[in-house]
Structure formats: structure tokens, C-alpha cells
Design brief:
Elements: E1 4-14, E2 21-30, E3 38-44, E4 50-54, E5 56-60, E6 66-75, E7 86-94, E8 97-101, E9 109-111, E10 116-119, E11 125-127, E12 140-147, E13 155-161, E14 169-172, E15 174-177, E16 191-192, E17 194-201, E18 207-215, E19 220-223, E20 230-233, E21 237-243, H1 252-266, E22 270-279, H2 291-297, E23 304-313, E24 317-325, E25 329-336, E26 350-358, E27 362-370, H3 378-392, E28 397-405, H4 413-421, E29 424-426, H5 427-432, H6 434-443, E30 459-464, E31 469-477, E32 491-498
Parallel strand pairs: 21-22, 27-28
Antiparallel strand pairs: 1-2, 1-10, 2-6, 3-4, 3-7, 5-6, 7-8, 7-9, 10-16, 11-12, 12-17, 13-14, 13-18, 15-17, 18-19, 18-20, 21-32, 22-24, 23-24, 25-26, 26-27, 28-30, 29-30, 31-32
Helix pairs in contact: 1-2
Length: 499
């Protein structure tokens, strides 16, 4: 394909006299040359004045090319006429080079006022309302399709599924405009188009896939997005974990701002914090100085917050753990999982837990934990934590996540205890090294420890293996290159979707 190609143009005039309006629409296919592209429409109306409008990225097609779109709306005013007939060309700029679609040197394209939609015929079926994803409150998908009349479509049907094709729905489209014929006449490379539309009812589904079937007398054409199907989903659940290091950092106030900025910009939904500190104040604490509370107040929209403390930390703080959630807590609980509950013992370890109803995913049980080193009681603490978590599981729980600082290195005896338990699995590994994850947690490779020799993590998100989620990505945050160091630990951000 050329690096930029016109697919569709619409020139729609509606209303009468002084109340008339005009809409110009441009859809184009652009080669995926890399980031930093600029896509423009250069056009002129009947006044002959050359103008430029920037196009916006829509979606990536199944073949790797991209769809871009520009739209202009005009209302007739006393001193300004509508553009009327238009002539236009397309320009792509990338890394100092430019590429044009000017209708093969024919001085651009022409589209008459009120001529409706026109196609170049390069894409037999074009989705005029492309979406990159499903909105948080979206319950349906309106589809408007531009169908090349060369297909002579008499029936257009959307085949779609909410569960990876285990169940298939079929929804018919309505012909809105354009004749049921194969006539392809036009001007300057543009041909009349058929407009078909429908609406897919999603209800509470997390994702949808669909393909389009166009049936004519002599042929049936399938548009399945180059074999990939059209796929849309809700935003994934984003879980962040971070050990805050109990006020031990220089320039702590600025770092609290950095953490809040990262939560906002990365779109975290759940944040599990460890070494959350507030002034000791003779054991009474001081909520105003609580580090989780400070971070939460600095978010653009404060989260729901649950925090509790375990012991005296660094001889001056109540040290504990916290959960911040975009969604309300349905149930919250705190327990010591250590042998000791002495507030003056560093070996006293309390965990906080919360049940959270995440839209389109279900109830998630989340635990924020800071356990002891292996030699200081990790075995018993993790056993109590996992038994507690398992005891909370019911049919309504979609997933159980044990999050935080476990003080066990990947490949260590403590990590082996988790592996050998066959209940909880390392989700950072699942997202970033799925083959290794399978060898360790599913195949039980006798030599798996050797393959984690260079993995020095002690912070994890462990998920119950019977959970209905899967980790789709995991990244390290709060490094020198990514929001800066804010603690003696890095943070981690993981994304989850339903199975």
C-alpha cells in the first residue's frame, strides 16, 4: 500500500437557507512508519482559500496499517457561507519526509456539496465509527458502515461474540443510503457508497469481537479485519505496588507528589503500599502525617483508602500497610499474620485486606502485605496469609491478589514455598516471561531456580490460580528513567483482564 491513502470522504449539507449546516469527513489509511507522524488534509471550498486540518489517529487495522480521521463542521452565518464543493489532498509527514495522496497527480480529489459519502474502493467495508476501546459506562456499540457498491450487498450482518466465540450473536444492519447495486460511477476517483448501520448491545460485557458479512446475489464478502477480527474491550484493571520506606528518603514531599502523579497518569485502579508511616505520637499516631493519606489527598480524585499499622518503625513511626482503591470497599479487614503482635517488635506483621467490586470484572479480594524475611518467620506468615485469603474466597470472588513486599528473592527458599504450594502464582513473571512462568508454576521444572538467578525482586503480586483474571502486562516504575526513585524499592504496575 501507499504510505497514505484516502478511503472515504463525506460532504453532507443539511437544513435550509440561513439555518443550513455542512459536515466534511475524511477517512484514510496510513502506513505505520513509527511514532511522531503528522497527518493532514489540505482542502479548499468554493472560495478557493487553501486550508489545513490535522487528522486524528483512530485504530490500528489487522494488517498493521492505521486508520486516521478528520472531521469539520460548519454552520451558515450572516457573513460566512458554507464551504460548498471541496477539493483536497492528504499529506503524511514523518522524520523529515512527506508523502501525499493527491489522486495520482490529478490535482487532488473533488467532492460536491451535499453528495453524501464517497469511497475510493480501496476498502470494501469501512467502519465510520471506529473505537479504540469501550467506555466505562458504554452499554452498546453503534456501527455505521460504508460499503463499496461494487459488492452489490443485499444483506449485511455483524457476527459478534462476548466470550471468544463460544457463543455467537448475529445482528442485521439497515441500509440507510445508497442503492442496492454495483454501480460505481463518480468523479475524480470517488464513487457513491452504501451506508449501513446497526447497534450491538453489550450489557455488562468486558470485551467484544466482531466480523462483518456482506451478502449479494453472486458473492459473499467477509470483513474480519485481516483475520484478526475487530476487538474492543474495557480498560484493564491496573494494580500498583510500592514499598514507601517509612519517610527515609530525601525530599520526601516531592516524592509523594511524584507517586500521586504516577497513579494519576498511569491510571492505576488499586494501589497497595507498604512501610506506610505516620508519626508515633506516643502510640496514638497522627493521621495528617500518614504517607498513604498524603499521597491520596494529592490525587486528582482521591481514592478510597484503608490503612492499618503493625509496629514501631525506625523508632519514631507507626509503620503499616495500605490499600487505595478507585472503587468503594465492600469489606475490609486487618490481621496479624506473625507470631508476634507486639507493637514494639519489628517481627509483628499485620496485613490489610479489602473486597472491591470492579465494574465488568467482579469482586476482587486484595491484600497488602509486608512479610518478614525467611529466617524471621516468612514460612508461617505466608501460610497464615494464604489460608486467610482462601477462607474469604467464594463464588462471587473473581480473583484474589496478594500484593506487596514479601522479602523473598525470586528463586529463593521462600519463593519455592509459594511455588510448591500450587495455589498462588507470580503475575509479573506470567506477563513478562510466560514460557518461564509455565515451566515454574505449571510444569514444575526441577531446574527452575537456575533460571531466576538474575531476578532480584522481593515485591510481588501473587494471584490465586483459580482466579478468573490474567495478567496482560507488567512494568517496573519509580526508577531513574520512570518517575524517579521515591524509595529504596522500585514499584510495579500490572494490568489484568478477565479470562
Amino acid at each position: 500500500m501507499d504510505n497514505i491513502q484516502l478511503l472515504y470522504v463525506g460532504n453532507i449539507v443539511s437544513g435550509k437557507a440561513a439555518a443550513s449546516s455542512q459536515i466534511l469527513q475524511f477517512f484514510m489509511r496510513v502506513a505505520n512508519l513509527g511514532y511522531g507522524k503528522t497527518v493532514e488534509v489540505h482542502w479548499a471550498g468554493e472560495d478557493g482559500v487553501r486550508r489545513t486540518v490535522l487528522a486524528d489517529y483512530c485504530v490500528t487495522a489487522g494488517d498493521g496499517s492505521e486508520y486516521w480521521r478528520a472531521e469539520l463542521r460548519f454552520q451558515r452565518q450572516a457573513k460566512a457561507d458554507l464551504p460548498g464543493d471541496i477539493r483536497f489532498s492528504l499529506r503524511l509527514q514523518h522524520e523529515g519526509r512527506e508523502y501525499w495522496d493527491n489522486n495520482d497527480g490529478c490535482q487532488g480529489y473533488f467532492c460536491a456539496a451535499g453528495s453524501g459519502g464517497r469511497t475510493t474502493g480501496l476498502v470494501p467495508v469501512l467502519n465510520l465509527s471506529p473505537l479504540q476501546g469501550l467506555g466505562a459506562s458504554q452499554r452498546s456499540i453503534p456501527l455505521k458502515l460504508a460499503v463499496d457498491p461494487g459488492l452489490a450487498a443485499e444483506k449485511v450482518t455483524v457476527h459478534w461474540t462476548l466470550d471468544d466465540w463460544h457463543h455467537v450473536h448475529k445482528t442485521s444492519c439497515r441500509l440507510q443510503s445508497g442503492r442496492r447495486s454495483a454501480t460505481r460511477s463518480g468523479y475524480a476517483g470517488l464513487h457513491p457508497v452504501q451506508h449501513w448501520s446497526t447497534n450491538l448491545k453489550l450489557d455488562g460485557a468486558f470485551r467484544v469481537q466482531y466480523s462483518i458479512c456482506c451478502e449479494g446475489k453472486e458473492q459473499t464478502f467477509w470483513d474480519n479485519n485481516a483475520g484478526q477480527n475487530y476487538r474492543l474491550s474495557r480498560a484493564p484493571l491496573k494494580v500498583m505496588i510500592l514499598n514507601l520506606h517509612c519517610y527515609q528518603e530525601d525530599d520526601q514531599d516531592r516524592k509523594f507528589w511524584q507517586i500521586a502523579k504516577a497513579v494519576d497518569e498511569l491510571g492505576a485502579d488499586l494501589v497497595c503500599l507498604q512501610e506506610v508511616a505516620e508519626h508515633w505520637n506516643d502510640g496514638r499516631g497522627d493521621w495528617a502525617s500518614n504517607s498513604a493519606n498524603i499521597i491520596n489527598r494529592r490525587l486528582k480524585q482521591p481514592f478510597h483508602l484503608y490503612s492499618d499499622w503493625s509496629h514501631l518503625g525506625f523508632d519514631k513511626y507507626r509503620e503499616g500497610v495500605a490499600i487505595l482503591s478507585r472503587y468503594p470497599f465492600e469489606r475490609q479487614e486487618a490481621r496479624y499474620v506473625s507470631d508476634s503482635s507486639d507493637a514494639y517488635s519489628i517481627h509483628s506483621r499485620k496485613v490489610v485486606a479489602a473486597s472491591i467490586d470492579v465494574p465488568y470484572i467482579g469482586t476482587i479480594d486484595v491484600f497488602s502485605a509486608h512479610l518478614s524475611w525467611w529466617e524471621d518467620g516468612f514460612r508461617d506468615q505466608f501460610q497464615r496469609l494464604s489460608e486467610w485469603a482462601d477462607g474469604r474466597r467464594g463464588a462471587e470472588v473473581a480473583a484474589t491478589l496478594l500484593c506487596g513486599d514479601f522479602n523473598i528473592a525470586a528463586g529463593s527458599l521462600g519463593y519455592g514455598l509459594v511455588v510448591d504450594g500450587h495455589r498462588y502464582e507470580d503475575q509479573y513473571l506470567a506477563a513478562n516471561a510466560p514460557a518461564l512462568f509455565q515451566q515454574i508454576f505449571r510444569v514444575d521444572d526441577a531446574h527452575w531456580r537456575d533460571r531466576l538467578a538474575d531476578d532480584y525482586r522481593i515485591d510481588y503480586v501473587f494471584m490465586n490460580k483459580d482466579s478468573g483474571l490474567r495478567a496482560t502486562s507488567a512494568r517496573v516504575v519509580f526508577t531513574e528513567q520512570d518517575y524517579g526513585r521515591v524509595s529504596d524499592h522500585c514499584g510495579y504496575l500490572l494490568e489484568f483482564e478477565p479470562l
